[in-house]
Amino acid sequence: MSHARHARLGRARHARSSKHARSHHSPVLAGGLAMIAAVAAVAAISISTASVIAPDRPTSPPTPVATVKPAAPVTTTAPPVIVPPAPPTRVVVITPPPAQVIVITPAPPRVVLAAPAPNAGNTVVSVSRGASQHRSARAVVELLTNYFSSINEHDYQLYRQVQTRAAFNADPRKWTLAGFMDGFGSTTDSQIRLREIGTAADGRLTATVSFISRQAASAGSGQTCTHWTITRFLRTEDSRLRIDTNPGNPTRHFAC
């Protein structure tokens, strides 16, 4: 077969294939073409409407695009804040009162002395410190005061009252009024002092007394002034302390 014929056969086959293909795809192509035609019609209507609604305007030249440069940092300085001055503060200064200087002077040591007996002495009889501490000092001082007062005042009745009955009966003549006046009629005793109060072996109280007597020479064995130290034994009789008998009559005396 010649090349020309062969070429005609090829074109015939190609034509048949193309026809077959068109016949096979014709429905699809037809639908696609219809859709494209509809879209084109809508676009044409929109353009026509836009042309009717919007009149022709002159075409503005394109707006130049400004080149934006980064802004320089802005330093914001706040306006100064004016603070009104604070009102003056009232300061109250409390000044303490001046300190009081108290000088405490220690008191001298207090010496507590033993209280003397209530009848530690009187204008007739004085009492030593030792004798004043005795529990019977009051009664002894009262007895001696009456005894020496009876001699100085020449009071025979008082003189008898300060003696026990045993002492009176020991020497009745001496204790008569005549005997009392012979012995003490010119006598005055002074500086009478109770030296000591003690206790005898038999339990009786003893009182040691010193005094000075002034008397007539005839009554004092030639002495008109005599220092005496005597010890008297005492006993309670009829609820009163009295002068009792003196065993041995302990007495010391010398002239002034």
CATH architecture of the domain at 125-255: Roll
Number of helices: 6
Q: What is the CATH topology assignment of the domain at 125-255?
A: Nuclear Transport Factor 2, Chain: A
Unreliable residue runs:
18-30, 45-58, 111-117
Which series of helices and strands comes N to C?
Answer: HEHHHHHEEEEE
Helix content: 25-40%
Q: Quick one: CATH class of the domain at 125-255?
A: Alpha Beta
The biggest sheet amounts to: 6 strands, mixed
Give the overall silhouette.
rod-shaped
Averaged pLDDT: 74
Rounded to the nearest angstrom, the radius of gyration is 82 Å
Structural class: alpha+beta
Number of strands: 6
Task: Tell me the fraction of residues in β-strands, as a range.
Answer: 15-25%
- Measured distance between first and last alpha carbons: 217 Å
